[in-house]
């Protein structure tokens, strides 16, 4: 049954005897009202068939799809049973039920005789608790509609975290009442001088609410002490002058203090560490962000702070991780922060080096575990969605060991990246999309699909080799079968030549 178009691969799939279930207008949905509404929309979008409800007057003899929360099994797990006379989807919780419905949507098959679902039994649960995607809205701004469309796409593949990169050298995107100049003076900026934008607090709340409706947690990031050139435009007293010796210009303009930066180079900016004004600024922005964010995590960046002396960097990481912990949130930082030594207990590290770690990266990642935290894996040469899929791609970059094919995006095992990390030390997997070249939702689709599906499988499915079908050959077949579903969901995915697509 691993030939079915199921991505991410479920933990257990078993063929059942008998004919398929016929999906037509006579079918009725019973059970959980919220889940029933999700299923109704998904079936209507995929097939044009509008299913009825069990309380309809003519429903006494109708075939049923029962969707219920039964409280059985681990968090986010579900059971799906399809027979010719009915379908049952049972979730351990509301999230599990939602994921069971997404799996059901992948099973719907069209033919000349109508829409059907094959007879099958599925018992499924996630490998990792944290299954994330990241959208960089600082390099290029993406409005609320684009963000919500992106998170819907991710949720359909069982991702449960949306990490928003809300600040960088180019701009600060989230309105803060405590520091209004951040957006007033910088939100118009973007790479290449393109149009900018900002999220009001109402916008931010609407993204969080939409994410919650799709069982996703929003993790906001204000990146510091590096990646803070825009902060210096708004509040020059807290920013150091650009440090240009040895910085990575990436072929772009040279940054000038107080002027908008439109390039994509990194490593030149820093906050003034140890100043009272800087400490007050950091406290203001994270205190307000914590109050705005119901989720458990706040990300404070910590990457590519080449303009910050190592001792100052360590002092900043210690102080900022402790501040976030004092606000009742779990700090997250990119793996470089592991060099600091005095992380707040429980701080989570996000590893972004390669599948084979660059020098020192593994040690820094392990430091988070030593401090009582865990690690999120985002190896850049496997799951950075902004890398070109091949040399001919119009969008994307190639710094992470060249273009990243779909096969390379799939052929890695989370437990094998950082030596010494146990399964329990890994919080999960996140696939970031940096937006130096990404301006629209179509651009997002062009770079993320189909490689986002490979990241989904790394985050959800059993380890490589632990389940039948957890192979590249199976995956490329299964993902090819999702072509019709993605098309009806209006996902503008490129037809990768690595896949034989069903269209």
Task: Give a description of the structure.
With about 500 residues, the protein is an alpha/beta fold. It has 2 domains: about 10-125, Chitobiase, domain 2 (2-Layer Sandwich); about 130-460, Glycosidases (TIM Barrel, Alpha-Beta Barrel), CATH 3.20.20.80. The chain contains 15 helices and 18 strands. The strands form 3 sheets. The protein has an 8-stranded parallel β-barrel with strand order 11-12-13-14-15-16-17-18, surrounded by 7 helices. The chain has a 7-stranded mixed β-sheet with strand order 1-10-6-7-5-3-4, covered by helices on one side. Strands 2-9-8 form a 3-stranded antiparallel β-sheet, covered by helices on one side. The longest helix is centred in the middle third of the chain and has 17 residues, at about 275-290.
Number of helices: 15
Please describe the biggest sheet, giving its number of strands, its sense, and whether it closes into a barrel.
Answer: 8 strands, parallel, barrel
| Overall tally of domains | 2
- The total beta strand count reads 18
Structural class: alpha/beta
What proportion of the residues form beta strands (DSSP E)?
Answer: 15-25%
Fourth-tier CATH superfamily name of the largest domain: Glycosidases
CATH class of the largest domain: Alpha Beta
